[in-house]
Recover the amino acids of this structure.
């Protein structure tokens, strides 16, 4: 029996349902780490780029992607790591940015800091630490509502 | 560049990030405030991630089937090629951040140049690592300025840290046979030129931090050649490699 290869658009849609293990409101596609999806003969090749070189979520993401695609019947599968061009927060999708903010994480901003407080929208903000709970985040605080929040570092 | 020279050259980058990453990770749970604890742990994590790329490539170049893990966990002190600076003990928080700054400044300059390396796999790793190191440098620089130009106590501690660590600065940019071969092959930067830029930037920053660079430019060497590591490296390895030595081949 010959099983038709799943169309690439379907693959992208399935990948868009795989959550980032550390920030589960956005998908691995939103995060911009899926760099390419293509067939090499009958083998589906998914190219993934790490966010930070030591990010412990990277290996979990690879396992989750493999499991999600196998569950959809993709058996002939190869994951490839691609480090160049290096991941940039410019690759976050608009949908992902909006979801981050709704979740309470200020999206990255080229100015080097958050635009506004993700809780109250206030603009009087201060940085608490250049680093945060995961490699991709920094800690900030809103001086209007006094709440601390995560800011997704812009790199 | 000979294959063995390229292997040694790659070990230098991978061992620098491995040993410094391990040192910085020793702060985990001990930093003066939670935010700094997290910052140190994240810095260590980036460095260990970079180690996987450098040592992974080193193992490929060597061609004997050794993985990044094999190289990190199963070599003894004399086979390590990190500079002496990164194996120096943490001391107090100021000393740790001074060591970090002295290394970050050099690391950033070198990684920027390595992005144009004639060896594409080196250029790729440098491109990735450079973004992280730029961020480390921003933090270590701000902290050194803040503590140097801070209270009498913090100033005195930062000056003591600088006096202690300055003799380890010279090794990083003192080119040897391998550095020269890498530069000639278009693979690595001209370290003499890096040294000039490093010293200019260092002198500016120490001015801002109100710290005085020691007049004596004597440099301890022997780390990146492997000829003479300090006594500290062996102690690091007993902790870092303990599990693989006690339970060979253990995996998660
Ligand atoms: Zn607010």
């Amino acid at each position: 029996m010959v099983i038709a290869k799943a169309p690439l658009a379907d693959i992208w849609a399935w990948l868009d349902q795989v959550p980032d293990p550390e920030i589960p409101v956005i998908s691995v596609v939103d995060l911009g780490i899926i760099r390419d999806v293509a067939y090499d003969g009958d083998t589906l090749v998914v190219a993934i780029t790490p966010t930070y070189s030591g990010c412990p979520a990277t290996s979990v993401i690879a396992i989750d992607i493999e499991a999600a695609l196998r569950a959809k019947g993709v058996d002939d599968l190869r994951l490839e790591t691609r480090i160049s061009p290096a991941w940039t927060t410019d690759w976050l999708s608009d949908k992902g940015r909006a979801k981050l903010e709704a979740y309470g994480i200020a999206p990255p901003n080229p100015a080097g800091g958050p635009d506004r407080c993700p809780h109250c929208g206030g603009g009087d903000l201060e940085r608490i630490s250049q680093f945060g709970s995961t490699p991709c985040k920094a800690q900030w605080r809103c001086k209007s509502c006094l709440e601390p929040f995560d800011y997704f570092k812009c790199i | 560049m000979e294959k063995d020279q390229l292997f040694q050259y790659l070990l230098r980058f991978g061992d620098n990030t491995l040993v410094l990453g391990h040192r910085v990770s020793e702060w985990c749970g001990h930093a003066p405030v939670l935010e700094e604890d997290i910052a140190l742990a994240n810095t260590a994590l980036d460095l260990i991630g970079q180690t996987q790329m450098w040592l992974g490539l080193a193992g490929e170049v060597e061609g004997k089937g050794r993985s990044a893990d094999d190289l990190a966990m199963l070599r003894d002190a004399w086979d390590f090629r990190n500079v002496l600076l990164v194996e120096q003990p943490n001391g107090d928080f100021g000393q740790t951040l001074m060591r970090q700054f002295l290394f970050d400044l050099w690391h950033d300059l070198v990684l920027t140049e390595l992005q144009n390396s004639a060896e594409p796999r080196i250029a790729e790793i440098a491109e990735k690592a450079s973004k992280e190191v730029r961020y480390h440098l921003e933090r270590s620089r701000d902290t050194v300025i803040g503590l140097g130009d801070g209270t009498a106590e913090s100033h005195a501690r930062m000056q003591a840290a600088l006096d202690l660590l300055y003799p380890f600065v010279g090794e990083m940019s003192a080119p040897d046979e391998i550095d020269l071969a890498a530069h000639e092959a278009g693979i690595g930067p001209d370290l003499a030129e890096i040294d000039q830029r490093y010293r200019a930037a260092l002198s500016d920053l120490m001015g801002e931090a109100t710290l005085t660079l020691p007049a004596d430019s004597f440099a301890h060497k022997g780390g990146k050649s492997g000829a003479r590591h300090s006594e500290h490296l062996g102690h690091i390895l007993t902790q870092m490699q303990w599990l693989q030595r006690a339970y060979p081949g253990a995996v998660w």
Notes: Residues A 117, 119-120, 122, 142, 144-145, 147 surround zinc ion (CB under 6 Å). Chain B has a mean pLDDT of 97.
